[in-house]
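Sequence in, structure out. Go.
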Amino acid sequence: MSRSIDYGNLMHAAMRGLIQKVLTEVSKNGLPGNHHFFITFDTMHPDVELADWLSDRYPGDMTIVLEHWFENLEVTDEGFSVTLNFGDSPEPLYIPYDAIRTFVDPSVEFGLRFETQEDQDDEDEDDEEAPMDVDVEEEKADKPHKAEVVSLDKFRK
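Output:
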C-alpha cells in the first residue's frame, strides 16, 4: 500500500480553521465594517442542531446570513452555535465545521467551497479514499470583477 499526502483533507482542515478564527473574532468584537457571511451547510449532518421545522423546510442544504441580527455566537474547535431570527422567531442553531459547504463574505468577495466525495464525477466513485476537493475563491477589492479559483483536482492521481 503506497502512502501519499492527503492535500485535499489538509486544505479542508486549514480552511475550517480559517472559518473558526474569523467567527471567534466576530464573537468577541462583532462584525467589522460591511463584513457579513453567507454560510451554507448540510442540514442532514448528524451533528447539526436546528429546530425540526427548519430541517423539514430545508432538507439537505440551508444558507444562513450573519449580518444585522444574530446573537449568542459561540465558537468551539468543532463548530459554532448562533441564534438567528426566522420571521420574528429566534432559533438557536449548532453547525459543526464539517457540515459547512460554503462560506462567503460578499463584502470583500471572498468565498470557500467544500466539495464532498458525493460531489465527485462518476469516474471518482470507485476511489473510496479520494481526498475531498477544496475550491478557494478570493477576489481583491481593487479588482472588482476578476476572481481566482484554485482547485485541487489537478493534484489528484
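Check: The radius of gyration is 17 Å. The longest helix spans residues 7-29.
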